[in-house]
Amino acid sequence: xxxxxxxxxxxxxxxxxxxxxxxxxxxxxxxxxxxxxxxxxxxxxxxxxxxxxxxxxxxxxxxxxxxxxxxxxxxxxxxxxxxxxxxxxxxxxxxxxxxxxxxxxxxxxxxxxxxxxxxxxxxxxxxxxxxxxxxxxxxxxxxxxxxxxxxxxxxxxxxxxxxxxxxxx
Length: 169
Description:
Elements: E1 4-5, E2 8-9, H1 16-37, H2 40-56, H3 67-90, H4 102-105, H5 110-117, H6 121-132, H7 137-144, H8 148-166
Antiparallel strand pairs: 1-2
Helix pairs in contact: 1-2, 1-3, 1-6, 2-3, 3-6, 3-7, 5-8, 6-8, 7-8
């Protein structure tokens, strides 16, 4: 459907493949933003900004088969950026309550939620991308714009922290 302006039709800003990508990967991008930021307001900001960035750069993706990892990369970078901005802002404001943290969103397992919440943003991103969304470690490195060894290091440290937090295995 095209909106009309007078008697002229104006095309919608989303191309067909962008609409399809939104339908296929939108929830995944939001979930990734939520996992990295740890709270709904920042996740929503990151998600909307990530889509705006993706649409602005839509024509730059040369290989459509890599659309999922390209979008995940944009979402992860944007969520990390939003988190950095939040941290800078919070230095001058009252900190967010724990009720808005990831643990409140993962009420089905508060122990795991608390353990994940204590990870750094980068560690949460690696864990979410690898275990939550099934990206290989090399794909995670590509999404986050870092080296595979760095991703493996973040994952190793995250798993060690989770083991300690969860009491063993």
